[in-house]
Amino acid sequence: MNQIDIADLDCVYLTYDEPKKEENWVKIRNMIPWARRVDGVKGSDAAHKAAADASTTERFVLIDGDNIPDAKFFNQTLEFPTEDYESAVFRWKARNAINGLMYGNGGLSSWTQQYVQNMNTHENTDGRTETQVEFCFDPLYWPMHDCYSTTYPNGSAFHAWRAGFREGVKMCLNRGARPTLAEFKDQVHQRNLDHLTIWHNIGADVEYGYWAMAGARQGTYMTMLTNWDYLQVQNFDALAELWKTVESEQPEILANRIADDLHTQLDLPMHMLTVEASEFFKRHYRSNWHNQGVMVREIDVIRQQEGW
Question: Alpha carbon of 44 to those of 91, 99, 113, 221: distances in Å?
Fold first, then answer.
């Protein structure tokens, strides 16, 4: 069995416009003195290719600009029992500081240069539905079970709104495609619906949390209840223009204006929790979480839980 100590891999800190990217860079360099950085590359596909080019090791670790890792992660060893492990991408969970969710969004990941150089996604899509807004549908892109970082996507009102908006869009999709209203509940994965509901309603206790909830609701509304081109979710320039149409509004008013339509037409619960209730939820949501091992895949845990 091949093994690699994570401390022997290059770590690339990938930043774009995150308000605290310089502050976070200081923290990351103190934690990971060998870390490298790529900044300001437009487009998800292009940015990942730039990160791969910056690495001097074939496999490397990627850290997003609004993510703070757990230092314990870098004491782990990656094990490759079969050939597919050698070429796979690993995406570990992150805990979201806005709403407490724990899933791959914003989390640490490990890629190979070959994988990144061969992929065509987002702005460089090859036209397949699965590649236009996500990386995650490739069979060698593996969600992992453990959580090794915290993501802080609420660095400003705009960033919180954009983070919520993008998840409000993507959680509605079925493998990157927009379902019809009639298909929505049957085709969207139940876990995505659960995450979507939490994005819609949790976060009043943190700075700009109301903007994250408003963005999530608006993203869902525009995807499912208008003719807006949902593929624009990967276009940060288009999202910046859309932000200009709402930035002068009160986020609670914006969120509640579309709540009835989301509830009546999509049967989504619209119960924005108070500051105290949001704090309570996050304190107890997955409070008994335990990591099971850096190489444990999410699919293996699900199979075990469901008795596959």
Answer: 16, 24, 15, 24
Rounded to the nearest integer, the mean pLDDT of the chain is 95
Q: Which CATH class is domain 2-153+294-306?
A: alpha beta
- Measured CA to CA, the distance from residue 171 to residue 191 in angstroms comes to 9
pTM over 0.85: yes
DSSP β-ladder status, 141-151 and 67-69: antiparallel
Q: Which two tokens stand for residue 249?
A: 């509004």
40 phi-psi bin (left φ>0, alpha ψ -120 to 50, beta other):
left
Q: Percent of the chain, pLDDT > 70?
A: 97
Listed by start position, the domains of the chain span: 2-153+294-306, 157-273
For residue 15, give every residue at least 6 positions away whose Cβ sits within 8 Å of its Cβ, in sequence order, or none.
21, 25, 37, 38, 39, 40, 64, 65
Residue 280 clears pLDDT 80, i.e. is over it: yes
Helix (H, G, I), strand (E, B) or coil at 58: coil
The dihedral sign for the CA sequence 169, 246, 103, 236: positive
CB contact burial 83-121 (16+ within 10 A = b; e otherwise): eebbebbbbbbbbbbbbbbbbbbbbbbbbbbebbeebeb
> Angle 190-201/157-170 helices, nearest 10 degrees?
150
